[in-house]
């Protein structure tokens, strides 16, 4: 009897929650070529909708990450507001290119954040990872070796 009571209590008190936000499109604009030590800007455009009753405050956070080192180059938040039923948000991140000629792979992490949350499903209602590649400096010319 005690076991049945515990099982019923567990089933009745556990709430399963679906994601509150759906993102229909994430796109990026960034320079595909840049000089060494140049300040660049990556714009992330996020289109989506959240189940929003006007109580929770939403924003979009974008982290620009160096893919090789895993370090965050820039993190920026742009508010959606209390009514997030339909939104199109542009988040701008800046970074400085490396000091040498390189093909520079970046990752763009996109989060839809519900204010007041502290962890898990109460913090991020949507996450996504995208990739970008920037040619920094001149592209290395191929080397030809000829044997006499």
Topology:
Blueprint: H1 2-13, E1 21-29, E2 33-34, E3 39-50, E4 58-66, E5 72-81, E6 87-96, E7 102-114, E8 124-136
Parallel strand pairs: 2-8
Antiparallel strand pairs: 1-3, 3-6, 4-5, 4-7, 7-8
Describe the fold and architecture.
By secondary structure, the chain is mainly β. The chain has a single domain, classed as Immunoglobulin-like (Sandwich), CATH 2.60.40. Helix content is 8%, strand content 53%. The chain has 1 helix and 8 strands. The protein has one helix at residues 2-13, and strands at 21-29, 33-34, 39-50, 58-66, 72-81, 87-96, 102-114, 124-136. It has a 5-stranded mixed sheet with strand order 2-8-7-4-5, with no helix packed on it. Strands 1-3-6 form a 3-stranded antiparallel sheet, with no helix packed on it. A hairpin with a 5-residue loop joins β4 (58-66) and β5 (72-81). The radius of gyration is 22 Å and the shape is elongated.
């Amino acid at each position: 009897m005690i076991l049945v009571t515990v099982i019923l209590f567990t089933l009745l008190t556990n709430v399963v929650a679906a994601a509150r936000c759906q993102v229909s499109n994430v796109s990026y604009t960034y320079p595909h070529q840049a000089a060494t030590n140049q300040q660049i800007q990556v714009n992330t455009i996020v289109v989506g909708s959240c189940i929003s009753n006007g109580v929770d405050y939403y924003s979009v956070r974008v982290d620009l990450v160096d893919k090789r080192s895993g370090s965050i180059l820039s993190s920026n938040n742009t508010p959606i507001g209390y009514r997030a039923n339909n939104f199109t948000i542009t988040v701008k991140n800046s970074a400085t290119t490396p000091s040498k000629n390189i093909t520079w792979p970046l990752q763009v992490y996109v989060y839809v954040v519900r204010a007041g949350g502290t962890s898990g499903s109460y913090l991020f209602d949507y996450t996504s990872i995208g990739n970008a590649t920037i040619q920094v400096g001149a592209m290395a010319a191929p080397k030809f070796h000829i044997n006499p």
